[in-house]
Amino acid sequence: MMTSAESAILLTRNEARKLRKLQTKKLQAYETVTKFEKVTCSELFSAVPTQYLCLINVNFGGVGNVTTEQLIKIFNSFKGYIGVRLTHGKPYSFVMFDSVSTALCAQKILHEKPNEILNGRVLFIEFVNLKYQNFMNQIEEGSSTPTSTNGKRNIPGLFLIENFITDELSESILNNIYSNTGWILLQHRKVLHYGHKFDYDTNQVGEPSHEFPSFMNSIFDKLKKINYPLLPEMEQLSILHYPTGTGIPPHIDCHSSFGEFIMSISLGSPVIMELKNVKTGEVMNIDLPDRSLLILSNEARYVWSHSIRARKSDQLDNGQVRERGPRISLTLRTLNPDKICKCSWPELCDRNIIHLELNQTPNSIISFIPRKKKTTN
Ligand SMILES: O=C(O)CCC(=O)C(=O)O
Ligand SMILES: [Fe+2]
């Protein structure tokens, strides 16, 4: 019988180098997870097999860009496989099996081995400690936040119209927008304003400026045709360019500056928008497809903040992970001529809390009011 020292001697220099590299990778992967979770390996993982596997070095959008399809392909061939959960912004993913023995079988075959489907990438796989609640929540819920309004209650005043404009119109609008040289650079996004100036230093709507671009005529024609009661004529347009991976922080568009109807037309990459009820904390996600029109009015406009997370992909209800690309939004608003908001939520309205320090307001619910610091909204 050969000792490990003897067998080590038999490794070629190349093999020994590869082994060292693998050990370093493994160490780094485990360190990343423990640092991320701020607990030790023994709290995260179980030495005794369980039916849930944690793929320590697999997430979506990270190195190697693993997709849900690839993972399904790897694990589908194992008996007892139930499903995969790729995560966002976390270093790990999970695979569920129907029993401990089936999970054990997959772990034995795949752990520390280069995987063909992942172009030779080595997988590090541990058993989830069933007492580690954060992992169990992610496994049981499938997703930490819901990703669409399907099957959930409707928010009063929230409307999404899919295919609001045609592919042709979208293409000509995008060509026009991308050739514009007047972009104002924000921290991660770029913006163009029409109808009225908008000063990001003071967050005030300014004098009328820049007539609407001519392509907006077709949009206004389409708006007239939708069956939406009391839709006013829109007075201000902000065109936002979101490079892949960027978003917009949670905010409610300023009550006193803008009227009740806020509309957003999405062009380019679809994206998940997160809506949060600032009174109850309830969160609802809505998928904004390319060429769709979103209308926020009533409760959806005044009580729910909206945001887009900065990340390179979105996880959908069915567990699929969808990559993002660049996105353009056309946000249309009306103006409050007297700057006095008469909404039905005085407790949330900036007519009452405009004098407070911004950091006292939850989730930056007020945007577009004077701030001391420059804003990125
Ligand atoms: O990108 C979007 O659809 C929303 C933009 C937005 O919320 C805003 O400009 O206030
Ligand atoms: Fe907004």
TrEMBL record:
Record domain Fe2OG dioxygenase: where: 225-336
Matching Pfam families: 2OG-FeII_Oxy_2 (PF13532)
GO molecular function: demethylase activity; nucleic acid binding; oxidoreductase activity
Domain of life assignment: Eukaryota
BP-aspect Gene Ontology terms: demethylation
UniProt xrefs under PANTHER family: 2-OXOGLUTARATE AND FE-DEPENDENT OXYGENASE FAMILY PROTEIN, OXYGENASE-RELATED
Protein name per Swiss-Prot or TrEMBL: Fe2OG dioxygenase domain-containing protein
The species this protein was found in: Diversispora epigaea
